[in-house]
Amino acid sequence: MVAEHGKVGRPRSEQARAAILHAVDDLVTELGYGAVTLKGIAERAGVSRQTIYRWWSTKAEILLEASAIDARQELDVASRNDPVDDLACYLDALIAFLTTSDAGRAYRALVGEAQHDASVRDLLRGTDPIGESAAVVIARAIPDADDSSRMPQATAALVGPIFFWVLSGRNPDDLDSRRLAAEFIRAATAPATGS
């Protein structure tokens, strides 16, 4: 393999790592998760399988890292002056991520695989770029919601309707992110009722 300036040898590590992360997104989009192999990722990235094994053990690990990097960028929305606008903007970004981004499609493939592969399920539990990004926006919109024991449920309540809609094949254009954001804030700020 040829490195920079025409010298023979291995490419610099960061170049190889970036090539692998790009290759996995592309292959999952082109072939589907099940057809992607570590050999195919290595070939597409122009690296050896040994290079892949320096950082990852499975294609799911590579795909999750690639998706997480892109999710953190694509779901980082600017703060608004209005909590409903803030959450609606985030939900619009989430819809776009899950439906138009290669990284979002790859993330959806991982979610699907997690339904019958415990190792992928454990991987998603350990790295949750959607939950992390949602928690940031929720904490901005509802400062009292930043309770670590309640935040996982709050993030699920915010992103759950979007995931259901997209993963069940419904038309994302029919989603009203502003209405969903307003409903979320009403529910999150409503006084707790005793039993």
Q: What features would you highlight for this structure?
A:
single chain; 195 residues; mainly alpha; Arc Repressor Mutant, subunit A; Tetracycline Repressor, domain 2; 2 domains
Helix-strand blueprint:
Elements: H1 13-31, H2 38-45, H3 49-53, H4 59-74, H5 83-100, H6 102-114, H7 118-126, H8 129-141, H9 151-167, H10 177-189
Helix pairs in contact: 1-2, 1-4, 1-6, 4-6, 5-6, 5-8, 5-9, 5-10, 6-7, 8-9, 9-10
Structure description:
With 195 residues, the protein is an all-alpha fold. It folds into two domains: 1-56, Orthogonal Bundle (Arc Repressor Mutant, subunit A); 64-189, Tetracycline Repressor, domain 2, CATH 1.10.357. The chain is built from ten helices and no strands. It has helices at 13-31, 38-45, 49-53, 59-74, 83-100, 102-114, 118-126, 129-141, 151-167, 177-189. Helix 1 packs across helix 2 and helix 1 (13-31) packs across helix 6. It is elongated, with a radius of gyration of 19 Å. The protein starts with 12 loop residues before the first helix and ends in a 6-residue tail after the last helix.
